[in-house]
Amino acid sequence: MDGPRTTKDFAKLLRRRLSLPEVVLWRALRGRKLNGLHFRKQHPIGPYVLDFYCHEAKLAVEVDGGSHSFGDRPERDLRRDGWLTDQGIRTLRVSAALVLDDVDDAVRMIAGEAHP
Fold first, then answer.
1. Would strands 48-54 and 59-64 be described as parallel, antiparallel, or unpaired?
2. What is the largest CA-CA distance in the chain?
3. Structure confidence by residue, pLDDT tens digits, 11-44
4. How many domains does the chain have?
């Protein structure tokens, strides 16, 4: 097998390859630490894999590094966010720099959006 064949397989691969900001944020979210809400990491949905997803709040949390500002990435992110909106899922984009500089502030941002 050359690589993942399904979104589900790709999500499994990504769970083993979290970026440092994703690891830091996951430690703050896992185990229902945020208002008792259950977050999943690298959650497959349709053609996409979400960095973090809370089903109760219908909230996707995407940790964006610098690459999200270049090339066709902003357009791809817009398409993805639109598709998620059509599914009834809100997207919150959190900068990787914020997560690394002040994870508590990032968690407060998420808490403000995570109202089921």
1. antiparallel
2. 42
3. 666 666 778 999 999 999 999 999 999 999 999 9
4. 1
